[in-house]
Design goal:
By secondary structure, this protein is mainly α. It has a domain of about 55 residues. Helices cover about 70% and strands about 0% of the residues. Helix 2 packs across helix 3. The mean pLDDT is about 80.
Length: about 90
């Protein structure tokens, strides 16, 4: 059963990144902002699992994740932006 979950996780990782980048483009943000999640999540995980004191990095990570959530849940730009037309038009 573990191999099935590992297989699904690996197969859904890249499409998940693609969906998040498209959503960022809908809000006229560059896809490079995805790196905020890719860098902060391991930092928070390392601090939690190993108890290493990375307090300043953890604070940066929490604020980065909160900002990222705000960007993902905000409405799309009206009309066209630099990444193309509004997807619902």
């Amino acid at each position: 059963m573990q191999s099935l979950s590992e297989t699904l996780c690996v197969k859904l990782f890249l499409p998940g990144i693609s969906v998040v980048i498209r959503r960022l483009h809908d809000t006229n943000k560059p896809g490079w902002y995805m790196l905020i999640l890719l860098f902060t999540m391991p930092i928070l995980l390392i601090e939690y699992l190993f108890g290493i004191d990375l307090q300043w990095m953890a604070i940066f990570g929490v604020f980065g994740i909160l900002a990222f959530c705000v960007w993902l849940f905000q409405s799309s730009d009206e009309g066209e932006n630099q990444y193309g037309p509004k997807p619902t038009s």
